Amino acid sequence: MTTSDLNSLGVLSKYKEFIKPNDLPLISMGEGNTPLIKAPQLTNLIEGNVYLKLEGCNPTGSFKDRGMVVAISGALKENKKHIICASTGNTSASASAYGARYGLQSIVIVPESNIAKGKLSQALAYGARIFAIRGNFDDALDLVKETRDQLNVEIVNSINPLRIEGQKTAAFEIIEDLGDSPDMLFIPVGNAGNITSYWKGFNEYYNFSKSTKKPNMMGFQAEGSSPIVNNKIVESPETIATAIRIGNPASWDGALNARNESEGMVDSVSDQEIIDAYLFLARKEGVFCEPASAASVAGLIKLSKKDFNFVGKDIVCVITGNGLKDPEIPLKYSGIDIEVINPSIGELKNKMDKK
Questions:
Q1: What confidence tens digit (pLDDT) does each residue in 312-342 have?
Q2: Alpha-carbon distance 147 to 159, whole Å?
Q3: Does residue 173 sit in the same domain as residue 252?
């Protein structure tokens, strides 16, 4: 089987030897094998070699598909009929899509407010049953945890270790594309499963002697939702970046372990810094991402202003989700109005001349 054939089969087939247990059903929607592209404007800005890992190119538009395919495979192996998750949006979209494809009923618990419509619309389209609770994501996850012993469902949040097994494969791909691990990896941190997964992946590839180094893990939370940074649960997290609006991360310990072992950091960025990075990516790099994804780049730009030395270093920023997940954000923050004109070349020319 060629490399191209393996790529088309998804992460369970391509990385079967690395995923435990290795006897799971080999299902796929073509997840993984996402682009790693050079970011020339960011490279010029910080004088390092900056790459963007475009996880929004997964089937449902976010990195969640990598772990979800493994979690769903585990549910099929256990003959489950229902899957359940708490979600701020992306997890619900991914779970509902894979559930629909493989005949599982998806149950989604969401906070009553502050859910991106692009994400919730996906879950609705895939036929999920959606329950909105009066509370935040952490309350939703607490409710999901209660179902473990009381309902015959498979929990597919990142507290399911199979999710971590799938998400770690993004680290493998980065090493394969670069020829080694990067010097630093910048990544958004919400529930902290992703930074935990990447670190696990980099460690495993290093131990298999397929890389010569491991990166500093540089995680970034939103200021209004930064429990790890402040070492304190945030009861009412607030940020424009809905995907990382989480006050009590399920993988808190994993994030601390990744930070400490890699000699990296977990810091925070403001909503304004996130929006600035979001617009920079769109207008300078041609990459349209959801606001939470821009936290990685916001962190890189923030550190560059503090005289961090990035010269000559290979740096990867993880772009976790597609911009269509939050369709209202550009309408609010682009600063551009839609101009109505008559179908006249003269009027169009006058408008264009005025800029």
A1: 999 999 999 999 988 889 889 988 888 898 9
A2: 13
A3: yes
User: Which positions ≥6 away from 40 have C-beta within 8 Å?
Assistant: 285
What amino acid occupies position 210? Answer: K
Q: Are residues 214 and 274 in the same domain?
A: yes
Of the candidates 247, 255, 242, the one whose C-alpha atom is nearest the C-alpha of residue 226 is 247
185 and 292 co-located in one domain: yes
Q: What is the dihedral of CA 115, 250, 292, 49, to 10 degrees?
A: -160
pLDDT tens figures, 4-58: 444 457 999 999 999 999 899 999 999 999 999 999 999 999 999 999 999 999 9
Report pTM. 0.92
**Amino acid identity, position 18:** F
Provide the CATH number for the domain around residue 199. 3.40.50.1100
Same domain, 287 and 237: yes
- Three-state DSSP class for residue 208: coil
What is the chain's mean pLDDT, rounded?
Answer: 93
Among the listed residues 141, 80, 83, the one whose alpha carbon sits nearest the alpha carbon of residue 110? 141
Residues belonging to the chain: 355
Block residue for tokens 């992306």? 90
- The CA–CA distances, whole Å, from 195 to 90, 151, 166 equal 16, 30, 13
Q: Which domain holds residue 124?
A: 64-159
